[in-house]
Amino acid sequence: MSERLGVRKTYKLVVNGAFPRSESGRSYEVRDAAGALLANAAQASRKDLRDAVRAARAAQPGWWGASAYNRGQVLYRVAEMAEARREELADQVVAAEGVERAHATATVERAIDRIVWFAGWTDKIAQVYGGTNPVAGPYFNFSIPTPSGVVGVVAPAEDSLLGLVETVMAPICAGNAVVVLASETRPIPAVLLGEMAATADLPAGVLNVLTGRLAELAPVLADHEDVDGLDLAGAGEMRADLAARGAGSIKRVLADDPRDPDAAALRRIRAFLETTTVWHTIGQ
Amino acid sequence: MDDHPVLASPLNALDYDPAPESAAVAHLHESYGLFVGGAFTAPEANEQFATLNPATGRALATVAHGTTDDVDRAVAAARRAFPAWSTRPGSERAKYLFRIARLIQERSRELAVVETLDNGKPIRESRDIDIPLAAAHFFYYAGWADKLEHAGFGPAPRPIGVAGQIIPWNFPLLMAAWKLAPALAAGNTCVLKPAETTPLSALVLADIIQQAELPPGVVNIVTGDGRTGAALVEHPDVDKIAFTGSTEVGRMIQRRAAAAGTHLTLELGGKGANIVFEDAPVDEMVEGIVDGIFFNQGHVCCAGSRLLVQESVADEVVRRLMRRVDQLRVGDPLDKNTDVGAINSAAQLARIRELADAGEAEGAERLTSACALPSEGFWFPPTVFTHVAQSHRIAREEIFGPVLSVLTFRTPAEAVAKANDTTYGLACGVWSEKGSRTLWVAERLRAGVVWANTYNKFDPTSPFGGVRESGFGREGGRHGLEAYLDV
């Protein structure tokens, strides 16, 4: 009996809850750590990026408008989907990063636990970062943390799964919608996360994943006037240029390297939170 | 809203005797040096430029133009002072700030007169708002200096280092307090650059800082123009820039800070919408609209410069509003009866005129207060535009003057859409007796501050700042500490 011929998977973009190829028709070769061909990934165009930003903008009010409890459950559901696909994720981490299987498994488990951690934040943020303010006058005054809106993420280049989870889940748990540029050389875990999010009832457009050339896409993302924030974790040498481009529309830019994970994650959550302060008169 | 005719107010027939505050209380010097390393430099060491009284157009004093070298010396002084200041017990830093708060209170009359002379704002406002709030800010942040570990930014939050702080001319002393108080409480040292047209109250504050015996170099004050500010922004040893001013300059500063990796907070322009629903409490609402746009001559980044009024009551609201606007007393800022003072500078007056003329040219209807204007100095009458479209420049651009644009809406959703149809997002007002609707609207406004049934209220405990192109970071409250902590 001959060996069964495998069914190969085409890795596509994740835009507005759908899985399109690039409108440009382009693809590029993704190679494993040893240099063998892993897949042809979609090479997103500027048009794909603009479509993704439009989808994110449209989706964000609904995501923020859902109850914090509901958002937490949806993100926990993403962790459930990831748990069920641990083996597949670990395979891809081994292939992309060339690490030992045990190391890859630990990375995947850590990433899933981090998704659970972020899921738990959705209904704590308002209490931890908001509050009432004792103003000197007959006013009820309170501050609520509100999402910046649409956040563009340049995902870490090396740490293709864990780094991705940190940079994407922080703004999403705070009520933002995200357009992420996946690691250029290791994009497959990002596409998988996008697939899991789509099957976890994350509303279409809240997480959009683009694969392709950073040098082509990142400047367009940083210049886009309808993007409110930028996380440049994976921007490498482009970081200063992208941060300066963000000034064009006064974007919130997180350009530093993470330090200890929990502190860095809280910084990531705060980076894309605004504070809205409401004064209301008190009287009879 | 009732249907009773609005009678001409009997107040129109009454005249007030002038009640001027004494300008001599200001104790101004002829010329001022820079405050660097705890001491004033000799005025003659620098090129001097005049700061004018906008109510007369005449010079009040001359101040030093800080050069790149001066900025360098100020930053070096702040750097030298940083290790000792940042490691001093918080309880000790707190006591210095309490001292400054008390000294501001003790010298409040002098400060109010200085502010009104230099800025042109009514003495009623500098006396009752600017100066007391400046003292309150120092008092509030003094208490934080030894409680930073409880502020929610981890167990051992650290200061950032040397902060360069650039402030505008609309609330000179209050903006200095907003910048300095949290920075010092958190353990930073500061170089403050006051606005070119309003440097005097910051120089009195320098004197207060000397009286408080703050260690030399912890606060340095360098007067000058945009070039001085640029030198501060570009200085390689500045760790943090805090800027309040126009979005245009904010963009340039953000580009520069991005390249250098400098910490940054920005408090920029706005085009605030004051949203009036048909059930709004009438008298309070009319006063609130007036306060929203004519407070401080409209030189307020969060001014309610767009009035969005529900169509069913629009005519009535405009009628009552104009009756009130006609009663505003415009004139001598030192007169305690004055409601609206002088425009801060000739340049700002030209900008206001240009935009108001554009409003007329684009087809809006101009209603001008009947008040008489003084013959010398810089003045612009309180002005209301009706029949304004979203596309008009006066509905989109920040005028920063006493000019209100009136637009209408039918539904709450339309009000929200129109309010958010701007690249800014600083402040909005909502007027309604229906709390559930007010909160529904507040939730949907893209703005850093929402005032419900009030407007232009400030408090040291209340975080203030913008979203979108109105900037980022907060001033005031626990949130205001984050801007000066490396967390």
Explain how this protein is built.
In chain A, helix 9 (239-246) links the parallel strand 8 and strand 9 (252-254). Chain A has a single domain (27-81, 111-281), classed as Aldehyde Dehydrogenase, Chain A, domain 1 (3-Layer(aba) Sandwich), CATH 3.40.605. Chain A has a five-stranded parallel β-sheet with strand order 7-6-5-8-9, with helices on both faces. The longest helix of chain A is centred in the middle third of the chain and has 21 residues, at 101-121. Chain A is 45% helix and 18% strand. In chain A, helix 2 packs antiparallel against helix 4 and helix 2 (68-84) packs across helix 7 (188-199). Chain A is α/β, with parallel strands linked by helices. Chain A is built from ten helices and ten strands. The mean pLDDT of chain A is 95. Helices cover 39% and strands 15% of the residues of chain B. Chain B contains 15 helices and 17 strands. In chain B, the strands form four sheets. Chain B has a seven-stranded mixed β-sheet with strand order 12-13-14-11-10-15-16, sandwiched between helices. Chain B has a six-stranded mixed β-sheet with strand order 7-6-5-8-9-17, with helices on both faces. In chain B, a hairpin with a 2-residue loop joins strand 1 and strand 2. In chain B, helix 4 runs parallel beside helix 5 (172-185). The longest helix of chain B has 22 residues, at 123-144. At the A-B interface, strand 4, helix 9, helix 10 and strand 10 of A face helix 8, helix 14, strand 16 and strand 17 of B.
